[in-house]
Amino acid sequence: MRKGIFMTVLTAIALMFVVNVNAQQKATGEAREALLKYEKVLDKDLKKKALKEARKEAKALKKEGFRTPIGKLPLEKQLENAWEKQAELDMEGNPYWYVATSRIIGGNQSAAALQATNAAKIDIAGQIQTKVTQLIEDKVANNDMGQEEAASLTEMVATSKSIISGTLGRTIPLVEVYRTLPNNNVEVMVTIGCTAKMVNETAIKAIRKSLAEKSERLAQELDKLGYE
Fold first, then answer.
1. Are residues 212 and 129 in contact, defined by beta-carbon separation less than 8 angstroms?
2. Where in the sequence is the signal peptide annotated (predicted)?
3. Which partner for 40 in 51, 96, 137, 172 could form a disulfide, CB atoms 3.0-4.6 Å apart?
4. What is the pTM of this model?
5. CB within 8 A of 168, min separation 6: which ones?
6. CA separation (Å) from 17 to 4, 22, 144, 192?
């Protein structure tokens, strides 16, 4: 009796497993194209060029007197990493990363590094603005959005740099070097990066939240842009 019950339960579990696997396979098949789009690839020619540019930049920075802070990777390695990030593309040939560099002079190294990081975030916010504006223009060109809605959205995006930069909390530090100037001030150069898909989604959601306070209709138009 117990054996019969055990076999019945085992059979039910096996059927549940098969159904679950089939469902997963179906979901994977449907989502595969979307997921592959955000897989990153490293173009060999771009990588070769990146390494060449990294060595060239390292030589120039050393000549200017820049050094790496204690605990950081050697200058050449930091720059190689940053240039490689810029050479990574998604499956559609678009940049996989947003990368930005800023040089700031401050009274001390820590203050200058913080200011440089914030300036680099604002740079990335500007890049995202450009991307979102391009998406709006593409929608208009394809007759998927009216001129009036597009103009209103573009205006909102143009004033959203601070909103976007405020969403960039998870950037990756790629380069940090400094040099002491003759007047004892410190100049710091910082390069940061973040994956394009993640920040596009986060930025558009932040813009949408702000936009919805003014016009839910425009917020819905923003939803149609997608997060390419």
1. no
2. 1-23
3. 96
4. 0.73
5. 121, 124, 125, 194, 199, 202
6. 20, 9, 43, 44
